Amino acid sequence: MTKHCRRLFVAIALPLALQAGAADDDEDTLYQVSTIDALLAGVYQGVAAISDVLPHGDFGLGTFAALDGELILLDGIVYQAAADGQVNEMPATTRTPFISVTHFEADQRLTPPPGQDYAAFKTWLEAQLPSRNIAYAVRVEGSFARMTYRSVPRQQQPYPPLLEASKQQRVFQQDQISGTLIGFWCPTFTKGLNVPGFHLHFLSADHAHAGHVLDFELTQGQLALDPTNGWQVELPMSPAFLETDLGQDRSAALHHVEQRKSGR
């Protein structure tokens, strides 16, 4: 990160890998900019350039400045799932208000049962987790009988809370589609910091369709799991972040935003 950008952030490191000779750099670390509660509160100003984030990971998700679509980071390439349904590869100068990334390395491989919808998949995978006290990066390469996903349009200042902005979301459904699920499972105690439970985005194999996952029906797939026992959070020093009341419990709003399948 550049000297200029360092002045914009204060870092909180949660160094949970305490054993002697623990891995250096960002291996097995989830790195994030800002917090999910700040995003829920409408803090959409782009506080970090993608170029500053990429050294910390090649896999992840988030959004763009002004909430301009869904962000997917896969194999080191950043894609925008725009509200008009287009998928765009984004330059490193693009800015983000919220992003979570890691250097993905598959430590465990599983085969999900075919025919699962998103709810059944979550129940099944949570039962496979070695512990619910660390985060996991989740990657699924598969084919789907149905994929339902969404994106949100660029917002104008003064920015509305995410619950209001999500009323403008565009919901898409593709049938008989192949692609990749990208995201994380985070522990319950990360409430306010990140999304507890599952947060997944989708990118089709032809890079023509992408967005925030709402539901799916899995035909077949292979799952790779990467436990992350380190956590680094960069908190913005921007006025919008510093002056926002982040003491509220926004759990209900987050649940509604994550699961909302219509504009209501």
From TrEMBL:
GO terms for molecular function: acetolactate decarboxylase activity. Transmembrane segments: none annotated. The keyword Lyase applies. It catalyses: (2S)-2-acetolactate + H(+) = (R)-acetoin + CO2. It is an enzyme of class 4 (lyase). Residues 1-22 form the signal peptide. The keyword Cell cycle does not apply. Gene3D superfamilies: Hypothetical protein, similar to alpha- acetolactate decarboxylase, domain 2. Pathway: Polyol metabolism; (R,R)-butane-2,3-diol biosynthesis; (R,R)-butane-2,3-diol from pyruvate: step 2/3. InterPro entries: Acetolactate_a_deCO2ase. It comes from the Bacteria. Its EC number is 4.1.1.5. One of its GO terms (biological process) is acetoin biosynthetic process. PANTHER family: ALPHA-ACETOLACTATE DECARBOXYLASE. This is Alpha-acetolactate decarboxylase. It comes from Thiorhodococcus minor.
